[in-house]
Specification:
Strand order of the largest sheet: 2-1-3-4-5-10
Largest sheet: 6 strands, parallel
Oligomer: single chain
Number of strands: 12
Structural class: alpha/beta
Order of helices and strands: EHEHEHHEHEEHEEEHEEHEHH
Distance between the termini: 33 Å
Strand content: 15-25%
Length: 307
């Protein structure tokens, strides 16, 4: 199979590419220096050169609460544009299947826990990342519309926060786990964290995520979105204490309650993924955190200097 993975050189993408290549796929990974997915002519040229049979659209502008608050317009525009161009070229080139990655940020702010796919449209997303979530939600709507009108096989997966080796450890744009690991590794006396620590989050180890995406690409062909996560919920305060234990941080943790908490709770109902394509997360949080911390300590000079 000739497979195109946008964002294939990134955090999640690199793990998915490794998984696909182990299965014998002929994978094309576009480089941003050569193909700007925000430009239609570049996306046209990419599809002409790659001639893909299956496309995994992973490329995205993503980040934590701070990054989303700083550049909401950019998060909406660039994600919307990339998805639209990839969707249209998939149709024009006769792609057999397009896998688009959504996000838990698509869910309404006050979705009942655990989040079930049928609740996706029951309200507006949490405001700190709504532009990003709505752009991703538009990919779901576009995919369903293309399925209805053109018969294009588009599937949409709703992912929780990921973590693991090769994550983004830039404190300006990273998500909570890499930020905690870096802060607690580089500071011994005191760190400051946003909010009050009460919100809950769900985390999925990156290698498990790659496995789930590949399984969906291989075995799922429906038009309805499917949650992809671990199904486990933990508060940010508990997570911080957990990372402190594993990194050996014994300093003071200060909570800045003038900063936003974000969505109060996040936990997915992951039963549909197991039922439809046999995915269940295998990596416990402790084991995944240990692997991530070990990777960061071995690669932190390179991982920080490259960001």
């Amino acid at each position: 199979m000739k497979v195109l993975v946008t964002g294939g050189s990134g955090f999640l993408g690199s793990h998915l590419v490794e998984r696909l290549e182990r299965e014998g796929a002929d994978v094309t990974v576009p480089r941003s220096a050569e193909y700007d997915l925000r430009r239609e002519d570049d996306v046209v040229r990419l599809f002409e050169n790659a001639e893909p049979e299956i496309v995994y659209h992973l490329a995205a502008l993503a980040g934590g609460i701070g990054a989303n608050r700083a550049e909401p317009g950019r998060f909406w525009y660039e994600n919307l544009l990339m998805g639209a161009y990839v969707l249209e070229q998939s149709r024009l080139r006769g792609v057999e299947k397009l896998v688009t990655l959504g996000t838990i940020c698509e869910y309404p702010q006050h979705t009942p826990v655990p989040f079930r796919e049928e609740n996706l449209w029951n309200g507006y997303p949490e405001e700190t990342n709504a532009p990003y979530g709505i752009a991703k939600k538009a990919h779901l709507v576009g995919g369903q519309a293309y399925r209805d009108q053109y018969g294009l096989n588009v599937i949409h997966l709703l992912l929780v926060n990921l973590y693991g080796p090769r994550d983004n450890f830039d404190l300006e744009t990273s998500h909570v786990i890499p930020a905690l690991i870096r802060k607690m590794t580089e500071n011994s006396e005191r760190i400051e964290l946003w909010g009050d620590g009460s919100p809950t989050r769900e985390f999925l180890f990156v290698e498990d995520a790659a496995e789930g995406i590949a399984l969906a690409g291989e075995h799922y062909g429906g038009g309805e979105p499917v949650n992809l996560g671990s199904g486990d919920e933990i508060s940010i305060r508990e997570l911080a204490e957990f990372v402190a234990e594993l990194t050996g941080f014994e300093g003071e943790i200060v909570w800045d309650e003038s900063k936003p908490n974000g969505q109060p709770r996040r936990q997915l109902d992951v039963s549909k993924a197991e039922r439809l394509f046999g995915f269940r997360a295998r990596t416990p949080l402790r084991e995944g955190l240990q692997q991530t911390i070990a990777w960061y300590r071995s690669n932190r000079v390179a991982s920080v200097s490259s960001q």
